[in-house]
Design goal:
Structural class: alpha+beta
Distance between the termini: 38 Å
Shape: elongated
CATH architecture of the largest domain: Distorted Sandwich
Number of strands: 24
Number of domains: 3
Amino acid sequence: MKPLLLIIGLLWATIGLAGGPGDKPAEVKRDTVKAVVMYGEEVLFDVVEELNDRQVRDLRDSVLRFHGRSSFTDYLDQYISLTSKCEDELINYIDSLFESEDVPYALINQINLFLANRPEKAIPELPANLYIGSSGEGIPAEEFYPIWDQTNPNPYEWNLGAEDTSLSILLTDAEQLGHFHVPVINTMTSTFGWRDGRMHNGVDIDLEVWDPVVSAFSGVVRVARYYGGYGRVVVVRHYNGLETLYAHLHRFKVEEGQRVEAGQIIGLGGSSGKSTGSHLHFEVRFKGKPLNPSSFIAFDEQKLVNDTLELKRTKNGYVSYPKGTLIHTVKRGDNLFEIARTYGTTTYRIAKLNGIRRNDYIYVGQKLRVI
């Protein structure tokens, strides 16, 4: 196949007219342009040109789920594995592809486009509203909270944070915040959102009595006592401003005012309080408002979706989502099935990411995380 030359940008030159005798000719000015060698017009995903690595993976997973494995998904796998390589490695790889029995021109063209549009490496700029906190504080994130109450899991007035608009919170850092740990490695039995006509402000994770429960982040224990329907409950305030709650415990392994590290055992699982069986009820709150843990924690993979959490203030609390995710604003005529199909995902995944049910009503202006 003969290569085509795709010119990206404009090429122009201005040549000054010669003056009188002895005058110097005007300087020729030229703009540089990017040229991409294309072998035909076939590419892997010409409709969605600027997908990041995570979005390409989601596209591949969606195609696998609905259409099964094919040469297209194999090319996507190869493309994902290549985007982290340097230019010389990619050029050598392209050369090797031409030696294939069936030359994958679509993959070659996509790599050439990637090389032509790869941005220059730059030092990442931190958000102006990023809150990091300090592990040297006696009381973590004291500037966010008016009190340090060791008797009530959620003692804060509802209007705390009413003046907030948006905030970025660093979730994990090896030096200041430590690493993240899921409290219990087991199956989630109940999600965040409405359940039996009332709001379920956390997630439930299955466990056996005496199973160890660990702190998600480093911080200081604010509450460790028996409290109403929570039963034996531990609340840890973290240096990033979040508070996590661990309920229905059988035994305490920490005491109020104690500093704990991420991954440290804070109690043993049980079924105390209003509980129908042994499990951990796990909540994440900011300024007393519950956040959907599944919006930024990948429980199945036991990791955070991103190391930075974005919070947007709403009338009743905060919308939380990891930095870099894709948000869809609901428009008139939208429904969950069409939104899922547009983004190559499923209604189940969108519902899980947003703490809603698949048959819930959605409203114009509502923001839904789709990837």
